[in-house]
Amino acid sequence: MAERGGQRKARCFSTPSPTAISLLEKTYPTDATTNVTSAIAQKLSRNLYLQPAHPLGILRALIESHFPTFTALSGWSPLVTPAKNFDDLGFPPDHPGRALSDSYYVNRELMLRTHTSAHEVEVFARGERRWLLSADVYRRDEIDASHYPVFHQMEGARVFPASAAGVAELEDNNARLSAHLAQSNIVIEDVPHLSTTNPAQPSHDAHHAGLVALNLKLSLNSLMLALFGGRTGAGEEPLRVRWIEAYFPFTSPSYEVEVFFHGKWLEILGCGVVQQRTLDVANVPNNVSWAFGLGLERIAMILFSIPDIRLFWSEDPRFLSQFTPGQITTFKPYSKYPSCYKDVSFWVPSEGLHDNDVFDLVRDVVGDLAEDVKLIDNFTHPKTNRTSRCYRINYRSMDRSLSNEETNSLHVDVVSRLKDVFRVEIR
Ligand code: DAH
């Protein structure tokens, strides 16, 4: 999980504080950490990635079909313990992803998974040796065309025995994948499998770790070719894939993969050789595995030319009727409805206020009718030391024209909730 800078400690803001929260038809006790809003709670049952004619479902199926011998897992509950999401994967206790400002907590013991890696231990423990797992994941974030607090990831892994048989399986599979790639229109910018800054794990034989890393690279280059190859536009242009050294607490060596598409390098996924402790906790020692995790929205936005991430959640037939199972087609935008900008300025209370608290409150009050929210002014008065902020909210519906009365009333609601929940002083 990428680290994101925190500001102040975020707070929960359900008003009035209920003692229980209902999620996926079950009730859970709340506590001081609870920060799942009702806007988020409503998303838990949508399962967009399971709809066969939805771009996310089409992409998921396409990736699954590229790995026909892998078990495809889905439908796993998004409610996980912080131990599963973080500790079992070696995240340090002070990792910023754990903060209330960055993740959604049901209570101290339960959170919404922030990545599909949260299920690695469970899946390895089932004895799965080649698997893919698709799921919705949740992160508190800003509001704009490419950020949404719910998105979808796919995790994949392949396990090899840490033995001579494992080496033979790797050598054989690597030879086959290399032969296939050698005939393909792809140019790869590689990094060494291992380096001093991206080392094999102490418990691994370096030769074996190198073979696993090569297998990972070949498998993912071949996936990139299946997804993006032949779509680079200009005739015979080869697909360009770039490997970059990375760091994740749960893999070593670790990499990121980027693809050059429509004139830009796009970050597609993170991956690496799974930390041995994950396989040990899963009770499958004496094995070596690679794993990767990718975000479905980012890839689908590129492949289907979908300009705004909110569209994935649209129930408008003008969106949904454009897609066919098994096919990547170009989305034809229908006319955009007018936007309406409204500002809210206030004095921040002395205990501070995190941007993500403001964003979540806006989403909770107006749902997807906020296209984006931007902090446009932030100053601290030199004498009083009080901080004033101004946020600009862009109200726009994806599927209808909002009347002036409606936007006014949405904005009045946002302002009054800001006052009630955070005790801000409106200017
Ligand atoms: N879980 C990571 C994220 O959400 C992505 C990832 C990186 C998954 C490396 C992996 C991996 O399986 O090996 O950003």
Automatic annotation (TrEMBL):
Spell out the molecular function terms from Gene Ontology: ATP binding; phenylalanine-tRNA ligase activity; tRNA binding
- One GO biological process term: phenylalanyl-tRNA aminoacylation
- Aminoacyl-transfer RNA synthetases class-II family profile domain ranges (all copies): 34-325
Q: Quote the InterPro entries the UniProt record gives.
A: aa-tRNA-synth_II, aa-tRNA-synth_II/BPL/LPL, Fdx_antiC-bd, Fdx_antiC-bd_sf, Phe-tRNA-synth_IIc_mito, Phenylalanyl-tRNA_Synthase
The UniProt entry's coiled-coil ranges are none
Per UniProt, subcellular location reads as:
Mitochondrion matrix
List cellular component terms (GO).
mitochondrial matrix
So what EC number does this one have?
6.1.1.20
Report the catalytic activity: tRNA(Phe) + L-phenylalanine + ATP = L-phenylalanyl-tRNA(Phe) + AMP + diphosphate + H(+)
Predominant subcellular localization, coarse grouping: mitochondrion
Class of the enzyme per the UniProt entry, highest EC level: ligase
Specify one Pfam family: tRNA-synt_2d
Enumerate the UniProt keywords alphabetically: Aminoacyl-tRNA synthetase, ATP-binding, Ligase, Mitochondrion, Nucleotide-binding, Protein biosynthesis, Transit peptide
Q: Tell whether Nuclease is among the UniProt keywords.
A: no
Record-annotated FDX-ACB domain positions: 335-427
Q: What does this protein do?
A: Is responsible for the charging of tRNA(Phe) with phenylalanine in mitochondrial translation.
Q: Spell out the PANTHER family in the cross-references.
A: PHENYLALANINE--TRNA LIGASE, MITOCHONDRIAL, PHENYLALANYL-TRNA SYNTHETASE
Similarity-based family: Belongs to the class-II aminoacyl-tRNA synthetase family.
Protein name per UniProt? Phenylalanine--tRNA ligase, mitochondrial
Q: What is the source species?
A: Postia placenta MAD-698-R-SB12
